[in-house]
Records
---
Amino acid sequence: MNDLDLAGLVPECLGRLSAYVPPGGDYPVRLDANEYPHPPDPAIQEEIRRALESVPLNRYPDPASRALRSAFADRFGCPVEAIMAGNGSDELISLLIWTLRGGQGGGPPAIVVHTPTFAMYRLTALAAGYEVVEVPLGGDLEPDMEAALKAIREKRPNIVFLSNPNNPTGTFYSREQVDAMARATRGLVVVDEAYGDYSGEASWVPESASRGNLAVLRTLSKVGGAALRCGFLVAPAGLLREVNKIRPPFNLSRHTQVAGEIFLRHYDLVGPRVAAVVRERDRLARELEKSGGRVFPSRGNFFLMQCDGREEELSRFLQEGGIVVKFLARLPVTGDALRITAGAPEENDLLIRRFREFLSEGGTDAKG
Ligand SMILES: Cc1ncc(COP(=O)(O)O)c(C=O)c1O
């Protein structure tokens, strides 16, 4: 038996990275993962429970997730052939990156991202040997289009990732801005609509199949189905054919397919629920701002907040009182900040109360 020589087997680009550690722990109030704060409607839960009872556990699921994709096509208005289902949109991001890593005439493949943005684009691209070209958002967290177009023309990226709205800043890219970036590149522009329902704007899905170099990602994770791990890629047929070559054949469990399909068939319920979260987001932001926080406007179900350089201290104070928000150290453009997900009204009330206590106590007494 020989020792495993990881240094010789793991490529250098992977050796330099550390794993993305999603939030864990058992806290009563979770405002750190941009989830939807309530379980699905009881009638939907019951329908899912009943459907799952008859899943044949000894059989593989449908490798093409046909019923699930068809429910997505009906809901979002695109051809079923233009859709690939993924084990969360994380899997689809990864599949796109691994598929499109050709050298385009010599150099390493590249992605362009506007920073700060969702960490998985960078992490996955670096692991796959890409160069990651980062274009900072403007000081007001609006897209810096001049810098983005310049980077796209000079670096000729394989993929431009746009989280729209952008996690963690809540920035929204207009149709004109997305169009301009798609026109400037010969690579793929991915519009990641993980928070699309919260923006109140039209989805790119109906157009994407016919738009040459545009693809769209959606997920059930942010509208009440995070446990399902169910995401969708809508893209031109030629690209999907290539991605399919590396997609694990049974990437979605039958449970996810069954539950996801039911979730999509009742998607009408999502609109009013999302609208209620948006109202809560705005109320929470107003109250925190009134109390002394600096809140950045957002089109998602979350927002960034700063608090006189005391963000890390505030995050610890809240956590000791059972409330978890996401502390983001040294973000590009803003520096340290907290990303706060809008929760249920009573969770938001608790956060507002604890924030006021933090400010009045000077943040020294975390108990009580
Ligand atoms: C912008 C963005 N895209 C994709 C994802 C991943 O979503 P999923 O749960 O579908 O893998 C997230 C999760 O936080 C996200 O913020």
---
Amino acid sequence: MSTAAEQMLDLIKSRRSIRSYTSEDVSQDAVRMMLEAAMAAPSANDARPWEFVVVRDAGLRKRLARVHPWADMAASAPVVIVVLGDESSNHWVEDTSAATENILLQAAACGLGAVWVGIYPTTRYEDAVREILGIPRNRRVLCIIPVGWPAEKKGPRSRYEQGKVHNERY
Ligand SMILES: Cc1cc2nc3c(=O)[nH]c(=O)nc-3n(C[C@H](O)[C@H](O)[C@H](O)COP(=O)(O)O)c2cc1C
């Protein structure tokens, strides 16, 4: 019987970037769970400067897939969650990154596959996503997250490196 702490670590290690999906849809309940996880993330001054666009439309997903050469999974994933930050918050990058990791972990817990597709900090990628989805200029685009049922299997892995850990002083 593993402890809750061990189960948590197992889940964290089982989260892998999944880029290939079956044609099965992702329920609205699962999307809601991922968004609830996102909005439970820590946030500087509790400002919560995040917003999310849930994209199911195939035409829009196809266009998102063409934003850069490593985004093509957006076309085949049934859902793409786009993570936005309010740039009036100094900590929008940190806060939305924490929210993104929570989405990826919740996806893994649901048995779904997902991948963080970086958009920020490349301005032309951000502008392309803004144009496709009608996002206002004062909202930044951290990343897009294609989500679907995995059509590839990747095992959990530990990437613990003792050499990266310094005790007391560097
Ligand atoms: C900031 C950031 C940007 C990323 N951008 C992309 C991307 O554009 N396309 C992609 O396929 N994966 C992207 N990834 C996923 C990484 O390639 C992946 O996390 C890394 O290879 C480790 O594999 P793992 O997630 O399976 O542990 C990104 C990850 C991060 C954190």
---
Amino acid sequence: MQRFTELEKKYALEAIENEFNTSKNSIFNNRLEQKFRDLFNVKYTIGHVNGTQTMHTALAALHVESGDEVIVPPLTMSSTALAVLQNHSIPVFADVDSSTFNIDPASIIKCITGKTKAIITVSLYGLSPDYDKILEVCKQNKIYLIEDNAECFLGEYKGKLVGQFGDFASFSFQASKHITCGEGGMLTTNNENFANNARRFSSLGYAGVSAKQGKITRNDIQNPNYNRHISLGFNYRMSEVNAAVVLGQLERAEELVEQRIKVARIFDQVLDGTNLLIRQNEPMGYKNSYWAYSAILNTENPKIDWYRFRDLFQKNGGDGYYAAWKLSYNEPLFKNEIQKWNGVWQKYNENLCPVSEYLQKRMIQLKTNYWDLSEAEIQAEVLYKTIKEF
Ligand SMILES: Cc1ncc(COP(=O)(O)O)c(C=O)c1O
């Protein structure tokens, strides 16, 4: 199959031919937002430049303030915690579950203080966290929930699409993601007030925008006495060409996601026959959308070592694979920024989240974006051969 088809090209060309003139400047943004609303059965959708600024907008729209605490997992791409810093709030790191690699509700409970305002959950590698338990914690403690679904598209939790649980849900269309236009993002919510705040925050604080509409009328802006900016906002809007390309991808989303699942099933066949690699557990009732295929190296085998395994895999003809990102709190940025903005030194000790520490050192992330399944089969054979050498 092809990752991009004539459809995406046709839409992109149409967006250019519209010349970005003001009367046509949100045709594709509107179509994309509408299609997202229909797919996820949500009331409001706000297109964004990427899936990091979506989360900054969500925090601001929920009135999470400077110095408030937001609970996040550390085992993820750091945008999740970075968005919290961009909002001048404090990321508090909850540990993850050792089998699903996702944020652990029991650890969330331990992180709650009087300053906790929100939790950002991540569906790591395409797999949902345990939303029944997380929603219960949110309800009991009056905490907002933001879903970071950058790595999950059409994944499911107990029969519901991931994206239907939070006060806001965030999506990314960055180049490696299930559906993409290079860079882009979407924020969804069912709350009109939150959606109004989000649209305004992500559109320069314009008075004329609303939950459903990102466009300002020409009549308004032609008036010399028009007050355009009524609150502080950023310019996080998505371009028409990007909206056009990702609309085409959204119309093909099912086949794009299914292809990654097929690749995962090919790797499954290799992992079924070994205990050297332990894959991310997909509990009953969950549907993993496999942005990547992840597993941990079983270091009970004394010969195994992350670098040695990767070198052998590559020598055998493997594409190479990624490690999990460094845990967010181990990145120098987090300690320094917290101190600068809030005057508080957050003590992010080395072993703050022991399960995350353990997993991160042993994790491998295999690509699932093979558009020709025979390429994935070759990689699976290489993986099999490498395992046999231990
Ligand atoms: C879990 C997670 N959150 C957020 C992001 C950020 O998305 P974007 O690159 O669109 O800003 C990514 C990856 O890019 C991600 O993997």
---
Amino acid sequence: MRRLAIAAALCVIATVAWADALKLDGTLTEGALIRGFAGPGAHIALDGKTVRVAPDGHFIFGFGRDAPARASLDVIFRDGKRLHRVLDVVVRHYGVRRIENLPPAEVTPPPEVMARIKREAAEIDVAFAQQSDSVAFETPLEWPVTGTITGVYGVGTFLNGQRRQPHLGVDISAPAGTPIKAADAGIVSLAEQSLFFTGGTVIIDHGYGLSTLYIHLQNIAVHVGDRVTRGEIIGEVGETGRATGPNLHWGLVWNGVRLDPALAVGPMPQPNAANPATAGAARTTAPAAAVPILPPPR
Ligand SMILES: [Zn+2]
């Protein structure tokens, strides 16, 4: 009898907590991916725009490189209760990298190449716009490759003194041919062998507007529409497109907003100590040798 009463009391507590529980996981800062939970049937709006909520009550959103300092999050729980929260988005300070003495055609592509660049950029945007119902976004990401990080998120870029799009991903230097793993399960939304800037390019849709991007691949092992599991090999590290050394540029995108993958993944596992040749090659690649040249700002 007494046990029953305790069970009933626990049940009430659980129901009350369920009714107006909002859980946010992630650092509120520029470039961050935030995972949330508000219970099944909740409605979420970020700065007035609806955020899709999965049937199990989970959702995600993110802040871009230059996100406003404040965001407002509105929740309507299944029982009708409302919650309004102001989120303070911590400002980050990004460095600048300057690359001089590049051939002019690499800094400002000739007009005959611009049509191709625009077409490929549109193709990438279409892939990023995929919003499948996969709930892979709920599980943590894993590093697609281990190696030396030679480029971080957010850095402003100047080529021959001209401002270009900031670096909106993480560069991981690793020997050509190193297998690249899918950072999470999902559906391949783009698999192209040779785009102008990005070379061999793969995009995986993890559901609810979250995608990962992999560029400069030398071999691609997947096709558009393929379902991949977390950790499945999708291709190999290369230096295709505008890259001056073998490296993987890894990107993370939520609803078209480029996020910082390094904020959405745990510490990188150490390169395989049992294979010193591979580990050494990864470590000794000079950072400047793996800097990809990015498209002009759009
Ligand atoms: Zn990069």
